C-alpha cells in the first residue's frame, strides 16, 4: 500500500484534513502512519485518540465518515463498527483485509477516486 487510503479519502471530504492528521500521526508514532496502521492498528487508533484529545466520538466519526465516502465512491461496504473494533483491539488480519479490499475497490472505482489520485498501483494494492 503506497498511501494511507483513509488519509486520501479524508482529503477528498475536506482537504487538507487527511494531510493534517497524517502530520500529527507521524509526529506521535515516529513512523510512517500507514505502516503502523497495518502492523499495529491499536497503536494507530490510540494515536488518533491522542490527536483528538481523548474524544473517541470524534475519532469514530472520522473513521465512519472516511468509510462512508469510500463506500459511496467504490460501492464497497466496510462495516465501520467492525473496522473500528479491529483498530481498538489491534486485529491486524481484519484491518489488512479491509484495507486491501478498499485499495482494490479504489483501483476499480467509479472514476471519482482514480488510481493516480490515490497513488496506488496494482502491485501496491495486492501487497496490502
Key attributes of the depicted protein:
128 residues, mainly alpha, 9 helices, globular, disordered C terminus
Residues in helices, as a percent range? over 70%
The description of the largest β-sheet is: none
Whole-number count of domains? 1
| Unreliable runs | 111-128
- Number of strand segments: 0
- Radius of gyration, whole Å: 13 Å
Q: What are the secondary-structure elements, in order, as H or E?
A: HHHHHHHHH
Mean pLDDT: 83
Shape: globular
SS field, number of helical segments: 9
Sheet-strand content, in percent, reads under 5%
N- and C-termini, Cα separation: 5 Å
Please state the structural category. Answer: mainly alpha
Topology:
Blueprint: H1 5-14, H2 17-29, H3 33-39, H4 41-51, H5 56-74, H6 80-89, H7 92-108, H8 115-118, H9 122-127
Helix pairs in contact: 1-2, 1-5, 2-4, 3-4, 4-6, 6-7
How would you summarize what this structure contains?
This protein has 128 residues and is mainly α.
Description:
It is built from nine helices and no strands. Helices cover 76% and strands 0% of the residues. The chain has 128 residues and is mainly alpha-helical. The protein has one domain (5-127). Residues 111-128 have low confidence and may be disordered. The chain has helices spanning 5-14, 17-29, 33-39, 41-51, 56-74, 80-89, 92-108, 115-118, 122-127. The longest helix is centred in the middle third of the chain and has 19 residues, at 56-74.
